[in-house]
Amino acid sequence: MKWIQNKRLAKAVGMLSILLFLLVSSSIFSTYIFFNKELKRQLTDTNMELLRQLDHKLELSMENMDKLTIQMLNNKDVTQFFNYELNEQESHSNSFRISNYFSNAVSSNDYMFSIDLYAYNKRQLVSGTVLNEQEFIQNYQWVSEFERYEGYSKWMPTRRLTLDQSSYPIYRNVVTFVRTYPLISDPNVRKGAIAVNIKEDLLYDLIKKTSTQDQGETFVIDPNGTVVLHRDNKVLGTNISELPYIQSILNDTESEGYFSSDVDQTPSSFFYVNQNYTGWKIVRYIPEVQFNRPLSVIRYGFLALAVVLFVMSMVLVAVVGGWTFKPINRFIQSMTGRLTVHPKGHLEHKYSDEFQYFESTVEHILQDREQLHKQVNESKPLIKFKLFTEIMSNPPPKWSSIQTYIDKLGIRLQNGQFVVMSVEFDNKNKIATARDLHLYAYALCNVAEELMNAESLGFAVEVENGKCAVIMNFDDQETAEYNVMRAVAVADLMRNFVREYFNQTITVGIGDSVNFHEIHLSYKQSMETLRYKLVMGGNAIITNEEITSGQSSQFYRFFAMTDGIVASVKLVDKDKMQQQISKWFELFAEQNVPPEMIMQLIVQCLMKVATVAAEIGVDMAEILPGHDMYDVLNQYEQLGHLQQYTTEALEHIIERIREKRNVREKNEVVDKVLLYIQQHFKRNDMSLNLLASEFHLSVSHLSKLFKEQMECNFIDYLMDVRMSKAREQLVETDEMIRTIAEQVGYSNVNSFVRIFKKMTGLTPTEYRAKHKE
Asked: With 718 labelled, which of 151, 211, 575, 691 sits at a CA distance of 20 to 30 A?
């Protein structure tokens, strides 16, 4: 009988072994296929995302270089170089200042190597060095290429810049950015161009690999297939469009993609993205051996796991065959209890058999699962922030690409109309710690979601300390005005809740109602409206419509009149300011300007004046009310009362400016400089360099002293002195215009006439005739 039982046991063990072998093998194989496919997809997405980040980083750097170039073209000396006919001395002085300006720009920017300036009408180059004809041909080919170029700016591929002309010349690889002057001009009227030479190696550092284990290669080509950025300097500027994989990239009309090809008989994976800003393509290739290395690790890992599981299964089958059903029943009952009620703790004890040990292991797995679930819940704010960042990108992603985040977070969201609100806590400096501010913001986001989900969809996220963004979602059936009105209602509930339960106040900026593709515009509008807290005070709800309503041609005409009022306040001319305010309000009454527009114009005027006063040194807190300015203005029922309030507010600012100027310490050196200018303004070589040499000061220090004391730069002051003397000569004498120009320091009568008309609005002849009459 025992022999029969052993035979049956051996047969059962054998059948179970075969069954377990098939079960383990099929499970491991199907799991490997799934993970292999998923991991390959993740590796592809990772490399594409890496290229997008490199593209974004490179584009930001190049856009910043473009902005710096525009700032340099707006420099006064640069515009004078292009626009004015200068004599030899003025041209030399102008070139010297431009060279110093460019040298400072290059020394303050690690990416810049040199800056060149060329005027087509003068055929004159300013580059900070003396050039021979050979250097001009080698290093300045862009001058002739760009003269008839149809665009306004151009990024040239990498080229070698000759640094000397010795027997063994030294070169520097640079990427050149060329921009026209004027910024927007037809080639037929183009006056010149500026070329900024950027160090190629530093640009390449933005995209080069960061890991020594990375055997791939990342480089940049232009639309023609010429290498722009590359690790190997020998291939820079080389056209590689004949390579099959480069042809595939250049012929692809998509903005990004990936494929497989051979590089030097080595199978490789290629990834590329198209840079919208320059038209260049960032290419990355990785040998298939390196790319598939994680897949190989998983393959061998699953194989080892299959062997281990099979051996364990065989051992378990053999052991279980000799046991009774009692341990099995105990195990089933115990596991049922464990899965139904989660134990709060684990008590260590000795195990009488393997089933109890396995039971304890499963218990640990369940505890780890609970811990993992807790960690996922704690990471939800980060996932929300990621979702917010994706939605606010420009252009925003496709709706299907953010569906994963929406499902993970359980957010109620649909592709309809959106209104974005930006919320900021007031008086953040009075909140005890940054942690308290973060907790307030976290609680506010939860409250916002509960309030708006009661009748609409959306979610809220903390974007930075003390600031939250609330995205409300509506269907397409309602109007934009109705959606904004509902957003205002939710904002008012949030404001009341924060005031009641947090004992704090918030300010809410609300953008317009837009579709999903324009949601970033609504967020931008909400941030801009939030800035009006400075004017309207805290604890306010500000919509984009409030700050833009009435901005018609009538609004802009009245708003332009504020420039004269600001100028009068800056000159502390109280009488003139009162006349301008009186005229302003008379026009309000004559043209029946709406009260809302009047309120907004007054606020805008006071803001501009306060900004000017702050630049002079007046504390803005001393001249602006600490409460809502609109509430103050709404207290007045008559236009005359509003006029009186505005006049008194501006008079107060004038007094503060006068006090600030009276207490400002006078500088003896500036007084001597002013006296010297009054006595020698007739000299046509009068300049900051001359004054610095005369008074033994550096040009930069003298310029700083002059601006601090006179609140204007030297050139404007000198022109004002000369034009004042010229007006006296025109009215009091009959001298020729040329003679008067020479007497006030201008050797070129055309320059004198141009500057005179710019400052007075009349030519010298017209000015003399008008005052003779």
From this structure: 575
